[in-house]
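# nightly structure sweep
# worker-07 picked up a monomer target from the shared queue
# config: single-sequence mode, recycle default, output format = C-alpha cells
# input follows
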Amino acid sequence: MRGFFARLFYGRYGNDRLNFVLLIAGMLFSIAASIASIYSRAAWYVLFALSTLILVIALLRMMSRNFDKRRRELAAYQNMTSKLKGFWRRIRLRAEESRRYRRFSCAQCGQKLRVPKGKGKIRITCTKCGHKFVKRT
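# output follows
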C-alpha cells in the first residue's frame, strides 16, 4: 500500500499552507452544512456544495503537476495574509497608543500632536510652527 501512494504522488505538487487552509475551510463548511440541514434544506445544499467545491480545489491543487502556478497561488495567499496581519497589527498598536496618549491639533497650522495622558494641565508647543497652547490631558 505504501508504494501505491508513493507512485500516486510522485511528481505532484503535494500539500502547502494554502491547501491546509482550504482543507480546514472545507471541513468547517461541511460541519456547518450538517448543522444547517436541521433548519433548512436550501442552506444545506448551498453549504454542502461550497464545502465540496473547496475540498475538490484543495485535492486538485495537491495532485497538480504545474508547480509554477501553485507557487504563484501560494505567494498571492501569503501576500494577502501578510497584509491582513499588518492591518490588525496597526489597529492593535493604535488601541494601545490611545490608552497612553492623547492627540491634539494645533490651532494655527493643524499639525497633529501626541501628548501623554494623565499629566494634568500642560503647555503644548507645536513642533511645526512653534505655537504654544495649554490643554488638560
